[in-house]
Design a protein that fits this description.
Blueprint (H helix, E strand, L loop, with lengths): L1 E6 L4 E7 L8 H16 L5 E6 L10 H5 L5 H19 L4 E5 L2 E3 L1 H7 L3 E5 L3 E3 L11 H4 L5 H10 L2 E3 H4 L7 E3 L4 H13 L3 H13 L5 H17 L2 H10 L7
Parallel strand pairs: 2-3, 3-4, 4-6, 5-7, 6-9
Antiparallel strand pairs: 1-2, 7-8
Organism: Nocardioides soli
EC number: 4.2.1.17
InterPro entries: ClpP/crotonase-like_dom_sf, Enoyl-CoA_hydra/iso
Length: 251
């Protein structure tokens, strides 16, 4: 697993997620993402962040196998707290965060992207919240920032995905480019922001968060409560076992 952070000479910090094969992050991975964004927020030389990923897709959510191969609820609690920390760090980062999305962006990936300030995607990118298939809830808060309310509910209940090209019409994705041009497209937007007075941009980020009609942190935490209920009822284990192809308690 690797979460790297590189500050370029122009003030653009590039945070990269790389956890083969599908960037389904284990508990520590979510905390590492949060730490990278918190570092960016506290570094006055950082003017803007580009959050990207290596590999087949941007992010496949939490590592379900880690959860199923552990006893008790430690992994579940860790994943919930880790995701909360990572999503919060993106939203509250003192500088704008540009998400450069390639391939699949599902579950926790939508949590990261939904809390970003700008989204650029490759032409093979798609988004979804398949939580209901695994007996969990969450990231509806963030999907609602990408699509209108009725579309969000339809995607949530059906676990369907939506292409990045379709999100352009809603204004939630700035542009869709060929995959080999994704990094350049994200860096171009980042360069426009980095060219501004960072004192003004940091004030603007705080101001925009302050007038946001939804408290994304509390909203997501509310969703997580239902995930705990489903786990205590045994529903989540049953569905995760079927998804992961494991027997309950298998190491």
């Amino acid at each position: 697993m690797s979460i790297t952070s590189e500050l370029r000479a122009d003030g653009i910090r590039v945070v990269t997620m790389a956890h083969p094969p599908v960037n389904a992050l284990p508990v520590q991975g979510w905390y590492d993402v949060a730490a990278a964004l918190d570092e960016a927020a506290g570094d006055l030389d950082t003017k803007v962040v580009v959050l990207r990923a290596e590999g087949r897709g941007f992010n496949a959510g939490v590592d379900i196998k880690e959860m199923q191969h552990s006893t008790g609820f430690d992994a579940l609690i860790g994943a919930n707290k880790g995701c909360y920390a990572a999503f919060k760090a993106v939203y509250e980062c003192a500088v704008p965060v540009i998400a450069a999305v390639n391939g699949f962006c599902v579950g926790g990936g939508v949590g990261l992207v939904g809390n970003a300030d700008c989204v650029v995607a490759s032409d093979d990118a798609y988004f979804g919240v398949p939580e209901v298939n695994q007996g969990a809830l969450g990231a509806a808060t963030h999907m609602a920032r990408l699509v209108p309310q009725h579309m969000m509910r339809t995607l949530y209940f059906t676990a369907r995905t939506i292409k990045a090209t379709e999100l352009v019409q809603f204004g939630s994705v700035l542009e869709v480019v060929p995959r080999d041009q994704l990094d350049d497209a994200a860096l171009q937007v980042a360069a426009e922001i980095a060219a501004k007075d960072t004192r003004v941009i940091r004030a603007a980020k705080e101001a925009l968060n302050g007038i946001d009609p939804i408290d994304v942190n509390k909203s997501y935490r509310f969703e997580q409560g239902f995930t705990f209920e489903l786990n205590l009822a045994g529903v989540s284990d049953e569905l995760r076992d079927a998804f992961a192809g494991t027997d309950k308690g298998k190491k």
